[in-house]
Amino acid sequence: MGFHKQLLVCLAAPILILELGCGTPGAPQPPSLQLPHPVENLSGERKGTRVVLNWTQPTQTTDKQNIRHPGVTRICRGVNEFPMAQCREVVKELGPTEMTSQTTGKGSNSKIVFEDVLPQQAMGPGRYASYAIEVFSDRNRSAGLSNQVRVPLAPTLPPATDIHVTTTPNGPVLHWSGESSAQFGKLASDYAFRYRIYRRLVGQPTYSVIGEIPLDGPRYSFPDSSFDWEKQYEYKIAAVTEIKQSPGQSQSEIEGDDSPIASITVHDTYPPVRPTGLQAVYSGVGQASFIDLSWAPNTESDLAGYIVYRHEEGQPPAALNKEPAKSPAFRDQNVIPGHKYFYSVQAVDVRGNASETSQETSEVVPQPTQ
Predict the structure, then answer these.
(1) Cα–Cα distances in Å, from 218 out to 81, 158, 181, 235, 353?
(2) So what CATH class is 43-152?
(3) Among the four 118, 165, 318, 320, which has the fewest Cβ within 10 Å?
């Protein structure tokens, strides 16, 4: 090979190596601004003077890169402005470490939960608060506000007081002191007020609504008709403000702060009603002698049955049946001709509570005819 050819090969080799090492050519990419993607699932709910906000914190930037250096997160609030053009009032600024302490759940279910306390001077008919979240990079840059939620600033009633529970033969009855409808008549065109009753079994995590009653007062009572005897319950009351006109707002009603909790174990110490209408009729012509008893049935839902008592003149009553009779009738087949028998009946419930015995009735077993 000549000198000139060797020189060309030597010069071409580095060019070939460079071309092989460059990979697929493409348009140059601009550097990432590292702007956190705006929050898209902000939600909020008001109870009393508190507003609980929930959202998922973004983990990627607007150009779909992982956020490596997060900055602060601002909770923004505005009054009577929706949507907010910018963050009107910074309620709280949370740093990256503080965000961890506000997180609930794990993985895809993890949420940031933040509770804001509304200023009393902000409350009033027709007013509302707007909320948004703004997430910043470590260079104090953001891609803008999140979706926004609107929370009404309608007035709520103070918590119920003097709450206590009593037990009656029909079950527990809740009592409390509250507001009178006369006090809020001037707001009737905008709002309707009522009390909502909650109950849970002691040891259970959640309450269930068992009823509502309109504002009347100032003294209230509510019978619990869905209870079970021998259970331990906890009750609480929440006043509810229903907003008659609430276009575009996230809530059409607002609960006030909860009352103190009242608890009770519902013991059944109440006996059934005394049976009535007891009759005794002898039968035995052409067959074995017996006396049929019948009486008016009791209507208690927890009735176990009836105990029948019998005695003769000058003797104490004795039970004829060990197990309660399920129906209001009984046949006494152990009778002797020429004897007079006195009968009474007692009702018992499933917990062993026994009624007073009924009025006595009597019947004579006649001597057989010759």
Answers:
(1) 37, 13, 8, 19, 37
(2) mainly beta
(3) 318
Q: How far apart are CA 180 and CA 80, in angstroms?
A: 30
**Rounded distance between C-alpha atoms, residue 331 and residue 305, angstroms:** 15
> What do you get for the CA distance between the two ends of the chain, in Å?
157
Question: What pLDDT is stored for residue 186 in this prediction?
Answer: 73
Q: How far apart are CA 193 and CA 259, in angstroms?
A: 16
Contact 335, 293 (CB under 8 A): no
Six-digit token string for 128:
């509302």
What is the predicted pLDDT for the residue at 72? 95
Q: Which residues of 164-203 are buried (b: 16+ CB within 10 A; e: fewer)?
A: ebebeeebbebebebbeeeebeeeeebbebbbbbbbbeee
Residues 6+ apart with CB under 8 A from 159: 237, 238, 239, 256, 257, 258, 259, 260
Counting every residue written for the chain, the total comes to: 370
Counting Cβ atoms within 10 Å, is residue 21 exposed (0-12), middle (13-18) or buried (19+)?
Answer: exposed
* Cα atoms in the Cβ-side hemisphere of radius 13 Å centred on 320: 22
User: Is 358 in contact with 327 (CB distance < 8 Å)?
Assistant: no
pLDDT at 16: 36
Distance CA 57, CA 51 (A): 18
Q: In the CATH hierarchy, which fold is given to the domain comprising 279-364?
A: Immunoglobulin-like (2.60.40)
Kindly list the averaged pLDDT for each block of 10 residues, start to end, along the chain of length 370: 43 39 54 87 95 94 92 95 94 88 64 92 88 95 96 92 95 95 76 95 97 92 95 97 70 91 95 97 86 97 96 97 97 95 97 96 87
**pLDDT for res 20:** 39
Record: fold of 161-265: Immunoglobulin-like (2.60.40)
Q: Would you state the pLDDT for residue 248?
A: 55
